[in-house]
Amino acid sequence: MSEASNSAASREAALLGDAAQYSFRARMDKKTNEGPVFERGKDSVVWDVTGKEYLDFNSGQMCSALGHNHPIITAAIKGACDTLLHAHSSHYNVKEIELASRLGQIMPKPLQKSLFGESGADANEMAMMIARKYTGGFEIASPHISFHGLSDATRAVTFSGWHAGHGHLPGGTYAIVAPYCYRCPLNQTFPSCKFACLKVSFDLLDAQTTGKPAAVITEPLFSAGGVIEPPPGWLKELQQLCHQRDMLLIVDEEQTGLGKLGQMFGFESEGIVPDIVTVAKHFGGGVGISAVTTTAEIEDKVVREGYAATHSHANDPLICAAGTASLDVIAQDNVIDRARRIGAHMRARLEALQQRYEMIGDVRGRGQLTGVELVRDRQGKEPATDEGRAIGKYCFDNGLIFSLRRGGSVLRFVPPATTTPDQIDAAMDLIGKAIEQTAPKRNITPGASFN
Ligand SMILES: Cc1ncc(COP(=O)(O)O)c(C=O)c1O
Asked: What is the span of the domain harbouring residue 293?
């Protein structure tokens, strides 16, 4: 070992020693104290303290989907350092008004009034409180593969996991049957099912309600639940069923909004306008900021009735400047276009792999967000969780980061918008190699079954 790599290794060991002693391991996907320890990032690449380079097809925690340390974002942050970092949230500040105006112009009408938070969870909490105040109800439902955050209020409507060991959660929340067509919980097939999942869900909700329904909160494409795409018309039908009961529809676009899917918002392709929309993740380009946007009518009613919500830093010029800069990046870098091209390239490569490996049961997603569902055989569709975890580990060890969902059987990719065709090819070559290395006996020709 050279002197430099020796000292990098001992630096990493020292950091991990401190982490073992001082860091609270409440992380979602990993409880151990092993490395890597990340230090730098640029565009689609991150480096750990030993200098090892990784292709980041998870965009950090999806928050760097515009590219790590984008110069437009870092310039906005530097600008705030020269003017005003923090401001009282009961007074307006320039950056906050600029951001609310820009967001209001991007949202479809009549969505126009925005307030800000610092995380996805707090924006969803505010959205749910707005719906409760507006409708006078309190009951909130969400599909059973949803993820809306890990605060108490949002964990109660997060059904893709993370409930066990966390009771008592707030009451008045219900799971509805998600439109997971690849594994329909009702054994139906779209379109002959005629949205049986929604019919059953609302029959159950109607049976359980205390007469105080407030809202359904949903992602337009379920990310943490396994990159699951609802069938066309599902969101529209859901909104109609909500409105028939005077419930609002909250669409959580924190993972899917602002260009990442190759469209500004995921709900656009359904031709609907939700009552409330939340954004977070790459809004801010890597800085913690989120927003809730609703109509002037809803805003006016809840404010007249005393609605107040904020956090000490929620309107800070620093994060609002980053928020506006992220909207600049989306426009200037043609992120919508790039997301489409990245998604098409990635899914074409994955579909080619699907021709070779029976293990790849399904390839799906939109724009930058892509999922691959692994199965032990395509008929039985037994989830290939161990195999997925082995593929994830092989790729990670070889410098490719992505995340595993559904216990490991879904590989989820969110490469930043800066990702080049060569980087996609390198990542997909590695995935092919990982399948060969981890499940060589499952390498088949099309139509054959496993040996
Ligand atoms: C759809 C969705 N909503 C909400 C959240 C929670 O956001 P945060 O972790 O910033 O609280 C996430 C995070 O992954 C998410 O994917």
From this structure: 71-332
pLDDT at 32: 82
Could you tell me if 148 and 227 lie in one domain? yes
How many whole angstroms from 367 Cα to the centroid of ligand 1? 18
**Total tally of structural domains belonging to the chain:** 2
Q: How many angstroms separate the CA atoms of 358 and 321, rounded?
A: 48
Binding site membership of 119 for ligand 1 (Cβ less than 6 Å): yes
Q: What is the CATH number of the domain that holds 97?
A: 3.40.640.10
Indicate if 328 and 339 belong to the same structural domain.
Answer: no
- What is the domain-level CATH number for residue 55? 3.90.1150.10
CA–centroid distance, residue 3 to ligand 1 (Å): 42
Distance from the alpha carbon of residue 414 to the mean position of ligand 1, in angstroms: 14
Residues 134-172: b if buried by 16+ CB within 10 A, e if exposed: bbebbbbbbbbbbbbbbeebbbbbbbbbeeeeeeeeeeb
Residue 222 has pLDDT above 90, yes or no: yes
Say yes or no: 142 and 156 in one domain: yes
* Prediction pTM value: 0.96
Residues 343 and 309 in one domain: no
Residues 217/148, Cβ–Cβ less than 8 Å:
yes
- Which pLDDT value is given to residue 2? 78
Report the alpha-carbon distance of residue 74 to residue 76 in Å, rounded.
Answer: 5
DSSP string of 157-205? T--SS--TT-PPPPSSEEEE----GGG-TT---TTTT-SHHHHHHHHHH
CB 227 near ligand 1, within 6 Å? no
Average pLDDT over residues 24-45: 90
Q: Is residue 23 part of a domain?
A: no
Beta carbons within 8 Å of 300's beta carbon, 6+ residues apart: none
* CA 321 to the chain's CA centroid: 22
